[in-house]
Amino acid sequence: MDYRLSNKAEQYLRRIYQYSLQNFGDSQAVAYLTGIEEAIQLVANNDALAQRVDDIRKGYSRYFNQEHVIYFQNKKTHILVVRVLHQQMKVSLHIE
């Protein structure tokens, strides 16, 4: 299955890259972002790997990848990644 990123998910992925670039260098930043993208594709192909989180928002699922959590919705033809948040971020402040 395919995936799409919400505007906010895309913005946060850019921030992750910038932070990683500044703190760890280009190769580490690219590797980390590639890992997140591979994790997104993994759950797009097999959403049973993810955990339903209807208590956070009905219809949402999440998947943990290293220090980040991928929140998404299943659509008919794709998954929509709504957020990619650091594990220490308070979810209720970032998912409306």
Topology record:
Blueprint: E1 2-5, H1 7-24, H2 26-45, E2 51-52, E3 60-65, E4 68-74, E5 78-86
Parallel strand pairs: 1-5
Antiparallel strand pairs: 2-3, 3-4, 4-5
* CATH topology description: YaeB-like fold
Mean pLDDT score, rounded? 93
Count of helical segments?
Answer: 2
What is the H/E order? Answer: EHHEEEE
Strands, total number: 5
The tally of domains stands at 1
CATH superfamily: RelE-like
**CATH class wording:** Alpha Beta
Strand content: 25-35%
* Structural class estimated from helices and strands: alpha+beta
Any idea what the shape is? globular
Q: CA-to-CA gap between the ends? A: 25 Å
The percent of residues in helical segments reads 25-40%
C-alpha Rg (nearest Å): 13 Å
Q: pLDDT under 50 segments (min length 5)?
A: none
**Largest sheet at a glance?**
5 strands, mixed
Strand order of the largest sheet: 1-5-4-3-2
Please give the CATH architecture: 2-Layer Sandwich
What does this structure look like?
- The chain is α+β, with helices and mostly antiparallel strands.
- The protein has one domain: RelE-like (YaeB-like fold).
- It is 40% helix and 29% strand.
- The protein has 2 helices and 5 strands.
- It has helices at residues 7-24, 26-45; strands at residues 2-5, 51-52, 60-65, 68-74, 78-86.
- The chain has a 5-stranded mixed sheet with strand order 1-5-4-3-2.
- Strand 2 (51-52) and strand 3 form a beta hairpin.
- Helix 1 (7-24) runs antiparallel to helix 2.
- The chain is globular, with a radius of gyration of 13 Å.
- The relative contact order is 0.21.
